[in-house]
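Hey, I'm writing a tutorial for new members on how sequence and structure tokens pair up, and I'd like a real worked example in the thread rather than a made-up one. If someone can provide the structure for the chain below, I'll link this post from the tutorial.
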Amino acid sequence: MAGGENGALELERIIRSAEAMRRPLQLANLSLEVAPFLQAAFPRRVRVQTYLRNTAVFGGSAIALVAVSLI
């Protein structure tokens, strides 16, 4: 009856895993690496486009501010 014993051990492992998933997370034990998520979510091309867009918007805002202040 080795199959029955292995089946019982597998069932016990599944039950213990389910119990562990039901426990509330301990925030003190969590650490989050943000950089890998950002790199995966936003490839280099997107980051460069965002940088260029933000630079253009800032430059346009600066020009508009100077133009308004000279009027």
